[in-house]
Amino acid sequence: MNRSLLLVVCDFLLLSILALARFDVPEGAVIAQDDEKVVSKEVIERISDGENYDDVVAELEATNETLLENLSSDKDMLLEEKMKLEEQIAERQRELERKEKEIATRDEVIAGNEEAIQAAKEEAAVLESQREEIAKKREELLKDNAASQKELELLTKNLADAKKKSEELAALKEKTQREAQTAKVELAASMEKAKAVERAAAEAKAQLKDEKKRTDALVANTAKLDKKIESLNQGLEGVGKDLKVVGQGLAGVGDKITNVSQEMKGVKDTVTGVGSKVEIMQKEVEETAAVQKENFRKLNERQTRSLNEIFTRYEESKIKLELNFTHKGGFLGAEKTDTYEMDTIIMVDGSFAYSLVHAKDSPFRLVPRPRSLVSVTGAIKSPKLKEPIVVKEV
Fold first, then answer.
1. Which is more confident, 55 or 158?
2. Domain locations in the chain?
3. Does the pLDDT of residue 275 top 60, yes or no?
4. Alpha carbon distance 124, 246 (integer Å)
5. Whole-structure pTM over 0.70, yes or no?
6. Please, what's the largest Cα pairwise distance for the chain?
């Protein structure tokens, strides 16, 4: 029990005892009235014993004065005690009233505390449900973390594979460059050979032209000889005497004709040899041109099918796609903003340009669970662009 309340109860009990106490006058007592003096039986007995009345009265008066003084002193003390008691009672009463007010206030506080306790219980129930929901979400996050860890391992593996492929592409690029350099050297050699063949063909054409001129000159000489023979035949008709001489002359002319025929045959053989050389040179030129054309075809085919060209085209068309998306993925379904970046390439379909992105790594993923998207904005960035291109459709 509270100490203050215990004191109040004790004071109340003391006041009750004082109120119930009796201060009655004994039966047969003589009460003095109008300054009357009352002499007790003991005094009368003392006077009857022979003592002096004045002495007895004086003694009694002295005793009465002493008693009066004592009673006055006791009265003052009692009055003072009474005032103190009344003051204490009033103080106790005020304290009791104050305690009652405090008790009433405490009752109100207790009632308010009960309401607060009830509200706290309800809040505790809500917090417990939230704690269970947080525990469930924590389990989901742990599962997502495990899935993300697997995705990270897969990305690491893909990165290693991409690095390996990049190294292979670099080696293939170097090999292709060496092959292209070798092909260029072979092409230069073929071109030099073709130029040499062209020079030889030009020289052969010049020789053929010279031989043609010689042939024309021989044909002209043959025509002149034919005219001389014809004039000699006409001379033979008119001169019979000089037949022997003419016969000798004809013999000489025949020798000359034979020599001319032999020279014509040699010229023809020379022309035939030159023609053969020209045909051989033409065949060599055609073969060289065919070889050169085949080398060009192989070079173009090699360059078309080369991974180096594919990698170069990829590097030329590569861009960075940046998407800023808002989704409900925070605490208790709060909205969360993330940024997604990926290297991809621009593809053109008629007048519409677009870029392909794997849905697994984008904001539009389907596994491990789809995102609750609120909004998606993005832009295409590249060092070759003056400014980023805003994505119009997603």
1. 158
2. 162-309
3. no
4. 156
5. no
6. 261
pLDDT, one tens digit per residue, over 214-266 is 666 655 666 665 565 566 555 545 544 443 443 454 445 445 445 544 555 55
- DSSP annotation of 385 reads S
In Å, how far are 62, 81, 191, 204, 390 from 76, measured between CA atoms? 20, 8, 151, 171, 106
pLDDT over threshold 60, residue 324: yes
- Encoded tokens for 280: 């051989």
Amino acid at position 281, single letter: M
Nearest to 211 by CA among 274, 131, 276: 274
DSSP string computed for 2-39? -HHHHHHHHHHHHHHHHHH---PPPTT-----TT----
Contact of 377 with 371, CB cutoff 8 Å? no
Supply 12's token pair.
């109340």
Residue with tokens 């970046």: 341
The answer to whether 187 and 219 are in contact (CB under 8 A) is no
Contact in structure between 347 and 353 (CB atoms under 8 Å): yes
pLDDT at residue 167 tops 80: yes
Alpha helices in the chain (DSSP H): 3-20, 41-48, 53-238, 243-305, 307-317
**323: how many CB neighbours lie within 10 A of its CB?**
19
147: which 2 tokens?
A: 């899935």
215: nearest Cα among 254, 277, 260 = 260
| Model confidence pLDDT, tens digit, residues 185-206 | 777 777 777 677 677 767 767 7
Q: pLDDT: is 236 or 357 the higher one?
A: 357
